[in-house]
Amino acid sequence: MPGQSALTLMLFSPNSTAKFLVNPIIADLDNDGYQDLLLSDHGFSIKLYWNNNRIYGKCIDLIVGDTHGIAIGDFNKDGVTDVLVSRGGGSGDNARNAKLFHINIKEK
After folding, report:
1. 4 pLDDT band (50/70/90 cuts)?
2. pLDDT over threshold 70, residue 18
3. What are the Cα distances from residue 15, in Å, to 1, 11, 43?
4. Which entry of 9, 15, 30, 100 is 20 to 30 Å from 73 by CA?
């Protein structure tokens, strides 16, 4: 389809493996001037797509398992963006703590 990126076609095509995408985050996580993408595939994983000069890289599962939300910010005040993931827990019967990820640009 003209005007659509490969990422759009992959995520929203009938052949997509995504189940229930919630809480998309679009932000420049690595401070390179390009907006990266985080998607919560509820119950399966948080998917990270690095935007490298307007080309999205292959999907990386940031965390696998039941997830319910994502927030970003500099939570530890070190000048680097952090990702906070709210994890599920079996309909509330087995609630788990949130998980904090620190973006390490050198490992990207």
Report:
1. very low
2. no
3. 15, 9, 19
4. 9
Q: How many CA atoms lie within 13 A of 44 on its CB side?
A: 13
Separation of alpha carbons 87 and 35, rounded Å: 24
Give one DSSP letter per residue of 34-79, joined into a string: S-EEEEEETTTEEEEE-EETTEE---EEEEES-EEEEEEE-TTSSS
The CA-atom distances, in angstroms, between 85 and each of 4, 14, 75, 88, 91 are 29, 27, 12, 10, 17
Provide the pLDDT for residue 1: 39
Mean pLDDT across the chain: 77
Structure tokens at 47: 């998917």
φ/ψ of residue 91, rounded to 5: 60, 30
